[in-house]
Amino acid sequence: MSKGRKDPFLQGETTCGSLLYELQAIWDEVGESETERDKMLLDIEQECLEVYKRKVDQANQCRAQLRQAIADYQAKIAVIYSAMGERQVQIRQSDHNPGSLKEELTAIILQLEEMQKRKCDRRNQVIEVLEQIQQISSEMQCLSRYTLASTVVDEMDLSLRKLEELQRELQALQKEKSDRLKHVLDLLNTLKSLCSVLGIDFKQTANEVHPSLGNDCEGPKNPSKDFIVQLGTVIQRLREVKIKRMQLLQDLATSLLELWNLMDTPTEEQQKFQNVTCNIAASEQEITEPNTLSVDSIDLVEAEVSRLEELKASKMKELVSRKRLELEEICQKMHLIPESDSAVEIAIEAVESGELDPACVLEQIGLEIGKAKEEAYSRIEILDKVEKWLAAREEECWLEEYNMDENRYNAGRGTHLNLKRAEKARSLVNKLPGMAEALASKTTLWENERGVEFTYDGIRLLSMIEEYTSSRQEKEQERKRQREQRRLQGQTMAEQEVLFGSKPSLLKIQSGKRSPRLSSGGGSNRGLSAAGTMPQTPKDDSLPSIKVNAHEVESPMKRRPFSPISSKEPSKSNTTTNLAEEAE
């Protein structure tokens, strides 16, 4: 049989019973009365009851203390849960899993320690974020930094939501700081570029803004608004200086180009200032080369301009003469007559005598050159047509001379070339009326647009065209009259042959020799080519009227006014070929 653990109350009863038995034996030996015995037993029971009561009270007090401690710890846990914004998890579950109060107290103490540790960690996280926020705010606002001791943390609000809110604020500040630092770097790069272009020491200028900027290793560490404003003010001041120097340099470059053009400066000398003239139309952002706008560079350009100005003053008379020749060349090339030629002559004489400033005369001639170039540009197309028209007229004159040559069909050197040229010249001459009409239309349109007459070497072009057209019509009428006269002469000769019989061929020979003078066409000349090669015979006195009429015909060699002078020597056939192709 297994031995169970003895009940303490049963053991107490056994001990009390043995003591009571021993007390009974003593009383028997002493001879105590029953009354005394009952009284003493009652006292013993009373004393035992008081001891039990005292122990029960102590046990109740201990249980109450345990329950109070559990309640206090639970309250602390609840406060921590509330501060951290979490929902409390109950550990005590006496209804489902009953246990002693001490075990429950131990579990609650462990939970409290865990929650206190979590609260401490959360508080440290909040403090760390607050420190970073205060540090960045201090840097960006140029305020004194807060220490950890002065950091105020709300112990009743350590929730995860509060921590995330602080972290978002920290991230926003960090982003703003990063953006400001980038902006500061951009401003510093701009400042460095301006200092490089203006030839200014960057470190010295940066130290004036903030001493830390002079140290390239550390870089900018001050992203405050005041610092950015101060840096922007310095950049704006340097940019204004850059713009002023740029305008001055561009004015000097313009003067350089004008003086170079005026003085015909060699290219080798111009290359020295190529970096200056290349920026004559550049904007402020396009000028980035180092020392381009430095004081030394501008002084160098100013010295060169002053030197050229002095050289210009010493050679002003020569420049006036050169510009006058340039004006004359332009007018001669465009077949113009300068309107103020006499005024220019008077001005040049005044310059030579020292009565007039050469610069004024030079400016006046420059205006005349500009005006002449502008008008020349508008005359190019018409002048091209005029040159072709005049060349075609020269071919017409040559063809007339060629048709009057009695030996043009004789075999000889260059005869075949003249035949080809004559064939092409006839084709070109047939197009002359159309060329004259197109030229007149173009010239009329030009005059209507500008309200002035189009002159060619001082003569109005429309007058030349009208005179040529009139002359051509007169020649055409004369040729018709001569053809009619020849027809009548032929009829008279036929009638004489019928009345008097056939005559010797003297009349035919003379008619064959003289007929080329009366016709500019090619068909009749070919028919008389054989007669042109026959030897001459004495004149027949029986035909005086024919002789007189032949000499009364106006010679085609007679030159009309304003018509081009034809060359007596025949030109090459390829000239006629080119003109014919252009006319087509």
Automatic annotation (TrEMBL):
Its main location: cytoplasm. Residues 49-76, 149-183 form a coiled coil. The keyword Transmembrane does not apply. Keywords: Coiled coil, Cytoplasm, Cytoskeleton, Microtubule. GO terms for biological process: microtubule cytoskeleton organization. Pfam families: MAP65_ASE1 (PF03999). GO terms for molecular function: microtubule binding. InterPro entries: MAP65_Ase1_PRC1 (IPR007145). One of its GO terms (cellular component) is spindle. Residues 470-584 are annotated as: Disordered. It is found in: Cytoplasm, Cytoskeleton. Residues 472-487 have a biased composition (Basic and acidic residues). The keyword Cytoplasm applies. Residues 564-584 have a biased composition (Polar residues). Belongs to the MAP65/ASE1 family. This is Uncharacterized protein.
